[in-house]
Specification:
Residues 116-208 form the YHYH domain. The protein is α/β, with parallel strands linked by helices. It contains six helices and twelve strands. The chain has a domain at 13-110 and 148-183. The radius of gyration is 18 Å and the shape is globular.
Length: 272
């Protein structure tokens, strides 16, 4: 099906650089295509066959993300993006692939988010809820968001495409991350079976890349995906992107004023 047009999150290097406020490092690999989708069960390439198969894949005959000529319905204007990337998706933007662009944000500029993150983390008396607000920030300044609201997105028969780094735009929060794909600035070596660090959680503890297989089993992670090692101290490991939950919760004290100000009216919500 060569006629399939692509859709996706428009996160090209020159765009993302403007959002990077910490180290300004660029992701190593940016692919100029439709990106990916993850829904809690898997990570999927947003190619023609996947889009064509949506009704069967989600067992819902109302899916039809393309027109009679085989072109994918894409939010290709700011109005369409604003109408589709929100909790109450306008009828005319249902069955669309939602593409956001930096140019469509207010003023055409990156949305700055300020988080207060403890330099010296302290453990809280109990784990946070699964919704502490934003979970943290990557080393190159991208907000680590809560889970994408997949039920709302799919309920409107939309696909809020992610780029190959697991991020996308919404009109309220700008560019933000829902899944960890190993992009961007990383620190540390892979000693002791551990993985590199890519960001800080809102409670100040480092977040490392996901563990897999035997290393995951051996790591003995706690309820919030954290553990302590001799060389790194206490730190988290992100879930794989398929889970649509970078972290399940936070174990440390965090500043609740760093919350994103409640569910954004544009989204999809919260932090769609
Ligand atoms: Zn570790
Ligand atoms: Zn989002």
């Amino acid at each position: 099906m060569s006629r399939w047009r692509v859709c996706g999150s428009d996160a090209r290097p020159h765009l993302r650089r403007t959002e990077a406020v910490v180290h300004g490092q660029l992701a190593a690999v940016w692919l100029q295509d439709a990106g990916i989708w993850f829904d809690g069960s898997g990570v999927y390439n947003l190619d023609g066959p996947f889009i064509k198969n949506l009704a069967q894949f989600y067992s819902d005959s109302e899916w039809k993300l393309y027109d009679s000529a085989g072109n994918v319905n894409v939010t290709n204007t700011k109005e369409a993006f604003d109408g589709a990337a929100r909790p109450d998706v306008a009828v005319q933007y249902q069955n669309h692939c939602v593409e956001g662009r930096l140019a469509w944000l207010t003023g055409g500029k990156a949305i700055q988010t300020t988080m207060l993150i403890p330099i010296s983390p302290t453990k809280a008396s109990s784990a946070s809820s699964a919704h502490p607000g934003n979970f943290g920030i990557t080393l190159d300044g991208v907000v680590i968001a809560e889970s994408a609201p997949v039920d709302a997105i799919l309920g409107a028969h939309t696909i809020a495409a992610f780029d190959h780094c697991g991020g996308h735009y919404n009109p309220i929060e700008g560019y933000h991350l829902h899944g960890v794909m190993g992009c961007g600035h990383l620190e540390g070596d892979d000693a002791d079976g551990d993985t590199k660090m890519f960001g800080y959680a809102a409670d100040g503890y480092p977040i490392h890349l996901p563990l897999e297989g035997a290393a995951l089993s051996a790591a003995n992670l706690d309820d919030c995906n954290g553990h302590s090692t001799a060389s790194e101290g206490y730190h988290y490991h992100a879930n794989g992107a398929a889970k649509n939950a970078i972290l399940p919760c936070l174990m440390g004290e965090y500043d609740i004023s760093t919350r994103a100000g409640g569910p954004p009216p544009g989204g999809p919500p919260p932090s769609g």
